[in-house]
Amino acid sequence: MAVFIRSQLKLLVVLLLMVMLVTTAGCGIVDRMLSFKDQEAAEPEEPSVELPQEPAVDQSEPNTEYLGETTDITLYFADPTGEGLVPVQRTIPKVEGIARATMNELIKGPALDSDLVATIPEGTQLKDINVKDNGLCIVDFSSELVDNHLGGSTAERLTVYSIVNTLTQFPTVDEVQILVDGKHVESIAGHVNVSQAMAPNKDIIINQK
Hints:
Layout: H1 2-42, E1 65-78, E2 85-95, H2 98-108, E3 126-131, E4 136-141, H3 144-147, H4 153-167, E5 175-180, E6 183-184
Parallel strand pairs: 4-5
Antiparallel strand pairs: 1-2, 3-4, 5-6
Helix pairs in contact: 2-4
């Protein structure tokens, strides 16, 4: 009987020791979890970085045309005999770059039902045009102005002064400097010197009745 009691006491002691160990270990784990939680709370949060937003791109085209409005311009084409220039009035949409629009109309040539003759060689394109404050208009054409010209002194004079007379109709233009591919040239077909700025020629104009 005494042996049984001692065995039960040993078992009870062992159980009490196990309970104490488990309790102690549990407390340690809880303490560590609480400590970790407090550490997280103590650490400052990293400031959020906002990526810069790209500015909105305005994809609308510049409004250079006055909607519904028109204006009258004067173009100079060769008469049927090729001896002079004839002024022709044409109505085009009103735009801010009126000199550029006018020169493009000259390049297009006369109306299909007209007996007048184009003065700008086929394939010629307007590369740039710039009206200075001093009244000088610099107009730059593609190389076709020279390469595709038919030649002849009279035809060359008609080409040159159709450009100059057309542009000097505007009050802001007094003289015209002709360039080809952005460069000064001596002449277009070998007869008329266009290396300097040129004033209009009224004597070459024929007023048809």
